[in-house]
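Subject: for your reference before the review

Hello V.,

The reviewers asked for a structural picture of the protein, and I figured it would be easier to keep everything in one thread rather than splitting it across files. Below is the amino acid sequence we used in the manuscript, unchanged from the supplementary table.
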Amino acid sequence: MRPYVVSLLSLALLGLPARPIEAQQRSGTRAQRDSVRRPSADSLTREQREAVREAARDARSISRRVQRGDSSTRAALTDAASTTAFATPEARAILVRARQAREVQDSALKSYRATTTQRMSVSMGARKLGLEKLLFRGDNVAEISWRRDVGVWVKPVGSRLTVPMASDVRGDMVSAVTIPYFPGREQLWFPSSDFGVAKTEVDDRDIIHPLARGAERWYRYETGDSVDIRLPNDRVIHLRELKITARKPEWRTFVGSFWFDRDGGQLVRAAYRMAAEIDIWSVASEETARELMEDKELAPVRDSVLRARLPREIYVKDSTRRAEAEKRRDPDEDDVPAWVSATFRPAKARLDAITVEYGLYQGKFWLPRAHSATASADFLFMRVPFRLDEKFTYESVDGDFALPALPAARNRFASGDSAKADTTGVDVGGSNATVTMSAGGSGNERTRQRRDSVQASVYGAAKVRQCANDTTWTRIENRYEGAVRVAYQLPCDMKQLSSSPVLPPESASDESLFDLRSQAELVKALGLSLQAPWAPQMPRIRLGSDLLRYNRVEGLSAGVEVSQTLGAGFTARAVGRIGHADLHANGEFALSRSNGARTVTATAYHRLAAMNPEWAGALTLGPSLPAFLYGRDEGFYYRTMGVSLREQREQRRGAVEYGLFLERQWTAGDSDVVNTFSLARALGNRRFRQNMVAEPGAYAGANMTLTRLLVERPRGLRLTSIMRAEAATGTFEYGRGSVESTISSPTGPVAVAVTGSIGSSVGRVPAQRTYMVGGLRTVRGQLPGTQGGDAYWFTRAEVGTRRGAVRPVAFFDVGWSGSRKTFGQIQPQRGTGIGLGLLDGLLRFDVSRGLYPFKGWRSDFYLEAPL
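And here is what came back from the structure prediction:
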């Protein structure tokens, strides 16, 4: 898979710097395939193998140029596309000036000193949108110095990696620091090293840059608003907005709002996002197919180049061994196995928004002032949001200051004598490099290696060698596809970085560090109306684990999904399913429009619904596993048919979802379930409890769910809340509402969490909309639906060890449900037990004991607990 794809997926899935993953990928998929086709090491000398590799690289370059077509062909295609690319002549003129500014940049700038402040946060959760727990957070503060005649020096003055669930964290985040400017730097920012250097022309194998030459084939351009900025010296900067939209919804393209200096063409600020979300398995398959096609077209070119360049003996050896290896190669080894792509669903990622802001310095130099990016990924039952913010403060722009030269590279194949001399150099290895120092006659090297083995395992041997005689050490990295060599000046005691006073407190909010209001104003431009145009794509039909479920009514229910991206932000999705036990067909058709953070969906449906979906119901794969394995279904169900219109908005600290519905409801019953099977029943004759009986009726109504992350301190207090409300009229008129809040915090050697929830109603509530208390999500140790009524309350308390990677937990629950008229008059349920949480409660196993009214034992494995 191409490095830029790996960079993007690693960003969206984990939020991690992509270079190590890229390096692994380069030595992985493609390298494994080449290793099969390449002659073994004993058939050619090292010099001969290097000659073969050099010829192969040149052949690949020739093949790619042939595949892209000659410059005249590309120019003709671009000219043809230009007739429909621009809404007005002014839009064309703005793009032309922007391209000139992007390619020429400012050669007059000779130096700068800047301080960068950066925060990267990655969270992870299982169920509740907007309430994901912090997985890790990286804070960086670094001083960056650049001179045109020297290069880039980075002096990290603070770097902290916070992992709330871990007790010991090693390593640093200094390599994630963005270099604000270097000759050839890309104006548009993307959190990946493959997007750091400006490329003049579009490369249709990569992400399609909206400002590169030839981009008219993929984008449309129209002018927007204009703004005049008056400087203190009465100079006026005229800004003009250029709205850029992809011609079709494709994840390699962008939509966005870009503001340029109308006179100079310099980018001043922008907000943009990808035109479509990424289906990870589809992208992987497409990229593999593309690479195989390129390799097929490369083969004759490679053969011709090697035949012309190499001596006949070497050419024959290489060709013979390669042909033999090709015969042994499995043609399907590079593709994603079908069972993997079907099982690990959903697997998708999206980039919601990127913002960039530039500032004018010395009245003539535009330099980056702030960047931000938000992304998220959904994989199996996990949702992984990612957020990155950074800002730059310039102490000197175009000033005259001294800067030492970057250390020179040292030949890795230097002779033993030269290696013993006192030297300072760079050991270049792959895309990274490390400064090393060695001294002749160093004495007992083995003893020193034992003493410094821990440091060497984390930071490499270069640090150990340099710190033997100094308090600082230097690390060299080749960044931005090797375009820039960066020297990092680091303290020998790396712990100084994590405890530096210049770092913001761990509890400092993003709002206190960055100008989030300015970012929010930019992101407003990425509304539902700014979309790729209507351009229906091919429908996709799929099966997958996320379309399987198992419950007391349907038994095993399998679904088939047909989806189609339509363009203009619209996606159509149809799902049909049938259960093996009730043989009742269900289906729904949904038409949604989304810009990532906001989604509006209209749905027509005939489906099975859960009575308390916020607490129970095996209508997804995760809750279905206990029902299948040991016959324990936490849900009660009824059938419904109707239409709904819903809107979901993701917010920085939570989410809100509200909608209207018109539907008919009736009982699902047990009478139709004649052959429900569970593994527990097959082994021990354990049967499901009876389903609740629903009251038939027709209703029109509205509902809303608001989730808020009120307080989040990485190693301290965390406070969340969920508010739900519903009102309907029809067969009965009713309203119901509830609030649930969880507070958790470490206290000394332990962590404590308390959840409280209360709800009530007005009017005549149908049986299927009452509150059922008892069971895994309310009072553990009790049976689901032990009590039910139109009002409820429950409290759950947990205490466990402070660190949550693997956490023993003890808990106690108490709760009640019944008629609101008897609130507080009936003895509540109670249960207690112990559990084991993994990954800060993402996975949890409990053994509970009912105390009242039922006094039995039960065990549960489930997703997402407070501790």
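For the response letter, the relevant points are probably these. The chain has a mean pLDDT of 82. The first strand starts at residue 111 and ends at 124.

Happy to draft the paragraph if you're swamped.

O.
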